[in-house]
């Protein structure tokens, strides 16, 4: 079992930046590939970014490529999402999630049902 707690959300103007953090506890953090997802009002949850167990592989949704960066610090049991050049369409609740199914230290997945552990979410609001 692993617990995930997101932080760092808030209100920012378009073009601004935020860094989200997701602190974990429980089993060994390096056992999990990690991902960020988001859900806007009235919309389905969507994939944002993912990082492998080792941190050596990443994947991004096309809508955030070049603006968002996912990273992890296995010594601190934390995954981060640096968000730059934010747009109003980035407004959503952002969730971090842990995937315990990856045997490879380099594999990542954008598939939500591969992630068995989820945080409670943090709100990001981007004003125009």
Fold and architecture overview:
This protein has 128 residues and is an all-beta fold. It has strands spanning 2-7, 10-13, 18-26, 33-39, 46-51, 58-60, 68-73, 78-83, 92-99, 117-118, 122-127. The strands form two sheets. Strands 2, 4, 5, 6, 9, 10 and 11 form a seven-stranded mixed sheet that branches. A four-stranded antiparallel sheet has the order 1-3-8-7, with no helix packed on it. Strand 4 and strand 5 (46-51) form a beta hairpin. The N and C termini lie far apart (40 Å). The model has no long low-confidence stretch (mean pLDDT 95).
Number of strands: 11
Mean pLDDT: 95
Shape call: globular
Please tally the helical runs, counting DSSP H or I stretches of 4 or more residues. 0
Cα(first) to Cα(last) distance is 40 Å
| SS content category | mainly beta
SSE order in H/E notation? Answer: EEEEEEEEEEE
In terms of topology, how is this protein built?
Layout: E1 2-7, E2 10-13, E3 18-26, E4 33-39, E5 46-51, E6 58-60, E7 68-73, E8 78-83, E9 92-99, E10 117-118, E11 122-127
Features of this protein?
single chain, 128 residues, mainly beta, 7-stranded mixed beta sheet, 4-stranded antiparallel beta sheet, 0% helix, globular
